[in-house]
Amino acid sequence: MAPKRKRLSLRQKIVILNSLKSREKPANIAKRHKINESSVRTIKRKENAIRKTFTECGSSSLTYSFNTGDVVKVKVERALVWWIEDLVHRRIPVDTRCIKEKATVFYEKFKCEKPSSSNMQNMKQFCASNGWLRCFLKRNSLHNVKITGESASADEEAAKIFPKTFSDTIKAHGYVADQIFNADGLYWKKMPSRTYVLS
Questions:
Q1: Treating both helix axes as pointing N-terminal to C-terminal, what angle do 26-33 and 10-21 enclose, rounded to 10 degrees?
Q2: Which of 8, 27, 100, 111 would you label with 187, given CA atoms 20 to 30 Å apart?
Q3: Where are the domains of the chain?
Q4: Do 36 and 5 contact (CB within 8 A), yes or no?
């Protein structure tokens, strides 16, 4: 009975290609990875595309199981992780809606940068669905945590010089006390109480 067909990660494909390069027999490789020998030969035939994907996307893509022609999605996820790390570093909360919106923006950007090819033309349009989001969070070990304390640290230097700047502005434009409105505590959008962090 032939082994059940399974999707291989980029890491597994690279391992198989390296085994073939070492002159190991395809039958032995297939048996070890529990795949059909024809799958090994297909991987060999697509060696250039597989290695190009690894070169363009780097080691962060090794655990992905995807069509090698779809390098764009891997780049999107890598860019998203960097973006989330930056927000976490700046103590800016990020929720699922923000992640989905940013993923779509990155996808459109990277898709335009990628040269047109048959693989690109046959590629399904990216959709930042709930299913994709669950897989993205799991693949990158992102966890939803409750925010404690202030969302972002205050700019103390700006706070020190603001009173004088504010006073000068009032004098320059001839404002009176009745025209000054304190908007402390007024929010255009409520900030999320939770955010995603990398473990």
A1: 150
A2: 100
A3: 1-66, 69-199
A4: yes
**Mean pLDDT, to the nearest integer, of 51-79?**
68
Provide CB contacts within 8 A for 9, sequence distance 6+.
62, 63, 64, 65
User: How far apart, in whole angstroms, are the C-alpha atoms of residue 9 and residue 63?
Assistant: 5
pLDDT at 25: 92
Instruction: Dump pLDDT digits (tens) for 147-198.
Output: 665 555 556 676 778 788 888 888 888 887 677 766 655 554 555 667 777 6
- Fold of domain 1-66: Arc Repressor Mutant, subunit A (1.10.10)
Burial class (CB in 10 A: 0-12, 13-18, 19+), 67: middle
Cα dihedral sign, 155-158-163-169: negative
